């Protein structure tokens, strides 16, 4: 029985570390009640008796006093004078504000001192307590022996009191845990080292290329490029700007993917590329057509490939684009962002080339019979953004995009059901299934018109609706006229 | 002028560090730290008072110490650490209410600094690329920490109306990350395989823990008022962050997020509320012009550097994975060498 009580007491002592510490730091305002738990504590578990609030009394010579408790008391005893000696304003402020507090009836001064004790560390923080406080140590769980050793360490009063508060510099670079530093860094995955794989792969490809009769150097170069790209992607070694534009991806995947379409399928002819300024902000305003909004991608690629400065057009897209998985991600990565004034102004402030398609879904979803008839140009938000930033507006007319998927009818119910602006019926879709998504190979002409300057206007011009509407109409008319001219010059839809 | 600073939430990692730093600031006489549990770490020259901010007793602490600056750090982002969503909400909302009530009653409080969060902006596909302080959430967060933060800010605004003589600064911090701090985000990126929403690649901004402390110290010591976004420069996408952390990703459709979130919570890997799920799908960016111009603070770490500082402390995703990967590399290397030699012999012939 005695033995069992001993183990029980030891267990309670071990488990009660947290509780004991809590008891030494009483909840404020709960002062006189302190005596009650102290009185009931010895009844239940004798081990916890040592942690009564009166730490300075020398009642401690109980025969049950284990080494741990003794040490605790010693810490408290030695710590108390030190605490008093340190210049703390508490004793000064407490009597000053003594007349005002209404609540505690019992003699205030000693009680107050007791209520506001400094936290005395009597044990090293357990791993759990630390993580619960929102700190990640990365250490493995301590063995009981190690924990006891650290407890003893943290209890050593002379060390604790002599220790000055660590300087902030030390905080800035917390020493990493030694158990982590020798751990393998980021290549912890069971993925073989890429360089070795590359080597093996290149060798295999050389063999294959030689067998196929292609120059192995050429193949090797291409493969090396692809692998270099993949390596950077796998390492996360690329930058994304504030809008989500990922230049590395766009240059290496997105544009190369579009180029065959641009060069060989639509055979895009670009006119007036010199109208796009080589640097600084500008707003490209274009017509929008083609059921699937390929024209925005083609304009973007045209500017990138044909312009001497290889500028990137930052298109502004509709809400729906960014709600759709994959499409929205791809749009952000390739430089598009949401069509709001906030984003447009931010882009202009950075001197970016912004592209808008103010017809929106009205333009792409119009029936084939209305081809090349410009729809309403939104609410003119793009013009006021350009006015506010004082950037030129470059009108852009795209001919050929209307014929890539002529809309013969619209499945309105289905569109509403799917939450889409329209569900088109074209000569090929939905009859041919996925094949119907292949655009017809029409011949495209993209013409950039003379820039319309917006700089000369006085301050606050962006808030003048009349001016904004006038400019909007001017841009719209320019594009419409250019479209008619281009259509007259065009020999046929497909050549 | 004697300055007495009260820091709530001092037993948490960030709060403890902050209290210690404020105590070292010149011009600060005395720092009182308040929390319900004693701090597990050494808080230096800070006087610890065990009090619950959900309890009116906090008013007496403020009175008796003559506090003139209150730094409210006890808005908890991670439900795991306080025992679930209910206590979290109680601490965040009721705690703030009680603390503000005490501040309103007090005749000494001159300045209030609240650690708020960028979660107030929510995360939707209709968000602008960068939120300035004047913008609101496009869709108000319907639950979780985001809603708490909005309510906390609401109470702070109410307090500002009733006590116009008090300087109030609200710092909307981006997700704090670093080598030591533990949050939902660090839990998430510590998972051996990271589930990501299929078809989305959100932009995220991080703030290094040291920068967070510096910004809060600056906010407590300075005289800036109003709302200020605090975030590291640049953005990192979810997939990029996973790559930087050296973790494989598992793309899952967004509508399974609830189930996966429940599973990870059950397994104790990470605790994610629905608003954090939408953060992982749509992301968020903060405009930090005001942070530089008005608060006069420049973070030392960019978003990417902050994340890399965190990623450097991560162990391997799979224990023993390095051995396996070395073995596979070795085999591949040997094989390629062998083939090369054979080829060399072939071409030489």
From TrEMBL, chain A:
Against CDD domains, the record matches this protein to:
LPLAT_MGAT-like (cd07987)
Which ranges are annotated Polar residues under compositional bias?
Answer: 123-134
Q: Where is the composition biased (Low complexity)?
A: 1-15, 30-60, 73-87
Biased-composition ranges for Basic residues? 61-72
Q: Please report the stretch or stretches of sequence annotated as the Phospholipid/glycerol acyltransferase domain.
A: 282-401
Stored Pfam families: Acyltransferase (PF01553)
Name this polypeptide is given: Acyltransferase family protein
Species this chain originates from = Phycicoccus sonneratiae
From TrEMBL, chain B:
Q: What is this protein called?
A: NAD-dependent epimerase/dehydratase family protein
Sequence ranges assigned to domain NAD-dependent epimerase/dehydratase in this UniProt record = 5-218
Q: Which InterPro entries match?
A: Epimerase_deHydtase, Lipid_A_modif_metabolic_enz, NAD(P)-bd_dom_sf
Organism from which the protein derives: Phycicoccus sonneratiae
Instruction: Tell me which domain of life the UniProt entry assigns to the organism this sequence originates from.
Output: Bacteria
């Amino acid at each position: 029985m005695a033995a069992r009580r001993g183990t029980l007491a030891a267990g309670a002592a071990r488990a009660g570390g947290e509780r004991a510490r809590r008891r030494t730091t009483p909840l404020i305002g709960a002062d006189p009640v302190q005596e009650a738990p102290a009185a009931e504590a010895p009844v239940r578990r004798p081990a916890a008796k040592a942690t009564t609030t009166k730490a300075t009394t020398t009642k401690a010579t109980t025969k049950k006093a284990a080494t741990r408790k003794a040490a605790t008391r010693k810490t408290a005893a030695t710590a108390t004078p030190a605490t008093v000696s340190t210049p703390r304003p508490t004793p000064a402020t407490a009597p000053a504000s003594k007349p005002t507090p209404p609540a505690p009836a019992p003699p205030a001064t000693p009680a107050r001192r007791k209520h506001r004790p400094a936290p005395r560390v009597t044990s090293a923080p357990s791993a759990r307590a630390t993580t619960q406080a929102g700190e990640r140590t990365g250490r493995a769980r301590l063995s009981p022996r190690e924990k006891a050793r650290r407890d003893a360490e943290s209890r050593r009063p002379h060390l604790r009191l002599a220790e000055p508060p660590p300087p902030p510099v030390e905080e800035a670079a917390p020493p990493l845990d030694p158990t982590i530093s020798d751990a393998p860094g980021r290549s912890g995955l069971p993925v073989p080292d890429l360089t070795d794989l590359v080597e093996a792969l290149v060798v295999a490809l050389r063999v294959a290329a030689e067998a196929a009769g292609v120059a192995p150097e050429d193949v090797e170069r291409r493969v090396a490029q692809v692998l270099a790209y993949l390596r950077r992607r796998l390492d996360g070694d690329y930058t994304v700007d504030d809008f989500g534009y990922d230049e590395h991806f766009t240059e290496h995947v997105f544009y190369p993917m579009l180029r065959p379409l641009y060069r060989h399928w639509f055979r895009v002819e670009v006119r007036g590329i010199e109208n796009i300024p080589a640097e600084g902000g500008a707003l490209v305003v274009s017509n929008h057509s083609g059921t699937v909004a390929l024209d925005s991608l083609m304009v973007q690629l045209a500017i990138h490939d044909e312009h001497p400065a290889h500028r990137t057009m930052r298109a502004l897209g509709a809400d729906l684009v960014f709600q759709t998985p994959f499409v929205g991600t791809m749009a952000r990565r390739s430089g598009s962002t949401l069509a709001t004034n906030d984003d447009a102004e931010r882009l202009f402030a950075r001197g970016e080339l912004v592209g808008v398609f103010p017809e929106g879904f009205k333009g792409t979803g119009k029936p084939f019979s209305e081809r090349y008839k410009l729809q309403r140009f939104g609410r003119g938000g793009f013009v006021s953004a350009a006015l506010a930033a004082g950037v030129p507006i470059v009108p852009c007319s795209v001919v050929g995009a209307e014929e890539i998927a002529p809309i013969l009818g619209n499945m309105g119910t289905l569109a509403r059901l799917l939450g889409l602006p329209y569900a088109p019926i074209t000569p090929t879709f939905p009859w041919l299934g996925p094949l119907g998504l292949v655009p017809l190979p029409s011949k495209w002409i993209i013409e950039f018109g003379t820039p319309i300057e917006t700089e000369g206007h006085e301050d606050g011009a962006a808030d003048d609706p009349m001016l904004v509407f006038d400019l909007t109409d001017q841009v719209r008319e320019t594009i419409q006229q250019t479209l008619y001219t281009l259509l007259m010059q065009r020999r046929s839809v497909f050549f | 002028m004697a300055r007495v600073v009260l820091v709530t939430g001092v037993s948490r990692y960030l709060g403890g560090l902050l209290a210690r730093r404020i105590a070292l600031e010149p011009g600060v006489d005395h720092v009182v730290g308040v929390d319900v549990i004693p701090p597990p770490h050494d808080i230096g020259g800070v006087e610890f008072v065990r009090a619950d901010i959900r309890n009116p007793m906090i008013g007496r602490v403020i009175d008796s110490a003559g506090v003139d600056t209150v730094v409210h750090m006890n808005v908890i982002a991670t439900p795991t650490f306080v025992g679930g969503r209910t206590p979290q909400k109680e601490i965040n909302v009721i705690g703030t209410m009680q603390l503000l009530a005490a501040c309103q009653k007090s005749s000494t409080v001159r300045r209030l600094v609240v650690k708020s969060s960028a979660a107030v902006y929510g995360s939707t596909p209709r968000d602008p690329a960068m939120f300035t302080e004047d913008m609101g959430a496009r869709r108000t967060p319907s639950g979780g920490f985001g809603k708490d933060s909005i309510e906390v800010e609401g109470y702070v605004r109410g307090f500002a109306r009733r006590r116009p003589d008090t300087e109030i600064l609200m710092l909307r911090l981006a997700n704090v990350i670093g080598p030591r701090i533990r949050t939902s985000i660090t839990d998430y990126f510590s998972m051996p395989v990271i589930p990501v929403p299929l078809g989305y690649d959100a932009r995220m901004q991080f703030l290094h823990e040291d920068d967070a402390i510096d910004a809060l110290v600056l906010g407590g010591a300075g005289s800036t008022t109003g709302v200020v976004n605090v975030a590291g420069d640049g953005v990192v996408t979810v997939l990029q962050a996973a790559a930087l952390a050296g973790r494989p990703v598992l793309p899952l459709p967004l509508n399974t997020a609830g189930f996966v979130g429940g599973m990870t919570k059950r397994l104790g890997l990470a605790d994610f509320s629905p608003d954090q799920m939408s953060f992982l799908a749509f992301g968020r960016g903060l405009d930090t012009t005001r942070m530089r111009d008005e608060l006069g603070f420049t973070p030392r770490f960019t978003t990417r550097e902050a994340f890399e500082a965190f990623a450097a402390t991560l162990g391997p995703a799979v224990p023993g994975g390095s051995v396996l990967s070395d073995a596979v590399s070795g085999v591949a290397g040997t094989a390629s060498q062998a083939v090369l030699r054979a080829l060399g012999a072939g071409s030489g012939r």
